[in-house]
Amino acid sequence: MPANPVYRSREAKLPITLFHTHHVTKALIIQIIRERKSIELDISHNRNSCYIGHHTSFYTDNQKPNNICLHEAIESLKTERVFVKFDCKTPAAIPTVKSLIRQVGPDRSMIHGFVKELEFSPYPKEVHHSFHWQTESIKLYDLLRLKKETGNPPLQVSCRGLTEKRLHLEGIDVAERIESVLPTDVDVVNLNIHIPRNTVPPEWIMQRLYDRKKLLTEVYVDHVKDTPLPVPYFGTTNDLGSATVLYTSN
């Protein structure tokens, strides 16, 4: 059985839910360590260094979090039984993310990025094109190379420009493009279709991508109704209490 819990989840055909947050504090990290769960760190680059958070244009003045410094966060996490999802917010952050994964280890981490080849432009009018998107797109080749050079942690890739309406009208074309972009001989584990408001993707595309590519589509579990989904999925939650306990206390 693979050591990485995301690979284990897929092999066992069971869902896994990781914790997502924009606010990373020392107290939160201590709680996550105590509960043996997971944390997602957004890694952005400014001038000569990286930090936890999005591009500055993502925030208004009252939204920008006062996050813990990146070095302090990794020093707290790297020897603990905690899972870390590194969300690479710009190609400029790739060298830093490489170093961070090597410190935490490929069995306790994963990579995420918005893939340039999965930008479905022109964007529908319902999709608000934010300035920070220009800095976030990463070529799939660069993410695959990062994955290879860090010991093969799981990789999640995200799309842009999709909506429920677009999937209804162009769904087969969208699925075919995703399938053609992701090579058959490379283990891309997770896919974030990235519908506005974190809407749960249509079940048919989740089923198709799982059957054809073994992709675990990302689902915000806070939005899932009582009806179980038809295939294993990659869960994300903003509620730490809903995140999966990934490690035993021993």
Any overview of this molecule?
The protein has a single domain (5-12, 20-242), classed as Alpha-Beta Barrel (TIM Barrel), CATH 3.20.20. Helices cover 32% and strands 22% of the residues. The chain has eight helices and ten strands. The chain has helices at 5-12, 26-35, 70-77, 94-104, 133-136, 140-149, 164-181, 203-213; strands spanning 16-19, 38-46, 49-52, 83-88, 109-119, 137-138, 155-160, 190-192, 216-220, 234-237. Strands 1, 2, 3, 4, 5, 6, 7, 8, 9 and 10 form a ten-stranded mixed β-sheet that branches. Helix 7 links the parallel strand 7 and strand 8. Helix 7 packs parallel to helix 8. The longest helix is centred in the C-terminal third of the chain and has 18 residues, at 164-181. The radius of gyration is 17 Å and the shape is globular. The mean pLDDT is 88.
